[in-house]
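Predict the structure of topless-related protein 1-RELATED.
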Amino acid sequence: MDSVQLLTTIDADGDLLASPRIRFNKEGTLLAVSANENGIKILANPDGIRLLRTFENLSYDASRASESVAKPTVNPISAAAVAATSSGLADRGASVVAVAGMNGDARNLGDVKPRIAEESNDKSKIWKLTEINEPSQCRSLRLPEISRLIYTNSGNAILALASNAIHLLWKWQRSDRNASGKATAGASPQLWQPSSGILMTNDKTDTNPEEAVACFALSKNDSYVMSASGGKISLFNMMTFKTMTTFMPPPPAATFLAFHPQDNNIIAIGMDDSTIQIYNVRVDEVKSKLKGHSKRITGLAFSHALNVLVSSGADAQLCVWNSDGWEKQKTRFLLVQTGRTTTAQSDTRVQFHQDQIHFLVVHETQLAIYETTKLECVKQWLPRESSAPISHAVFSCDSQLVYASFLDATVCVFSAANLRLHCRINPSSYLPPNVSSNVHPHPLVIAAHPHEPNQYALGLSDGGVHVFEPLESEGKWGVPPPAENGSASGVAAIPSVGPSGSDQAQR
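Done. Here is the predicted structure for topless-related protein 1-RELATED.
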């Protein structure tokens, strides 16, 4: 890169486009070049040729096997990933194979021959849900001992709150494998601690610690974290880990925290006595106490565009508050399916869409998109009665996707525009194979990367966290199903309430 001299030229035997697209594989052993008549040429060095031969053999076996099956399989690529890794030609199988071989432009080499046979069949034109079943089909990184987590706003660290009330901060460092220094599943982070050795440790309640609700909120500049683990609320300096102040000893105890979007000194604090307290840190004073829920507060979200605060509670109620005078503007209860049982601690969470007008509602029985000014549900997704409850869900950073986790350890990726499911990540892709499906840890929380829309972190009940990304060859989680009635994507085009039959059938 620091020389203007031409290093080499390669004869591609003609038929190239005037301005062809080119792309190396991650190892630099193969070069794909677009050609005339929708063709693709693959150029290879000796290592690449050996890799191609491996894929050709596997693809031939897979295509022969598919002749005896009426429906083509989605996963010949799993075997290809294992072969590529074991042969030593790739340091990670995940960087070699496609997520599920379904995003046309980024076909995997091991997927070429089976797709030729499939494309001659009309069935190949029918959209099919992308399912991820193998570790080789996505990139995953496990972090230990986590129960609550959030990405820093800079995107280069994950902050966690453990069940012992201690905060842990993992930072990704710049390296040859991670030039940006941002959070990635392709490189391991380092547990960071100041030279003083200080730990950020919350005050813990002396009564019923197992019932304590952990919660925290991060300031926009990543300088401060407000946190509670059943006891007093603590304000920590993120650079030094020093405790700046503690306040509001229980009862009542804090159950949810949210910084005001325009003023980091103003905090909305949800309480286990169903109230919301608007607290000014600078003057150490409660400015307002909001009453409208009947059970503990489980979610708070500000819209700076509409100048409102939306709250949710364990009573399955939503409230909209004007953030000037803190008057309650609207309230509505969630509609829960008849006959659908809920757990005693069923939480309702809220998160605003990027447009600051719509917000996501997460309940164990449903995902829903609400319009704020009328507090009306404009789209809803209901899992089948036999499926596991939803444990948590969040928007991706660009609000184009919704990541939802379920108590059976499944993660589903939805289009945020219409809550249509288009990718499912099964437990077998990230949990050890020797873990029984009856006792495996279940997801408690999902955190979305603040800058990478296809990356999220999943916190499990055993304290573990996995950071997920699609394969580099794909760059996204599957493909969405065809649009209904030609509607374009975007929240403005959200259809009417209620999932289609195919949506429910996919869960």
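Residues 60-124, 486-507 have pLDDT under 50 and may be disordered.
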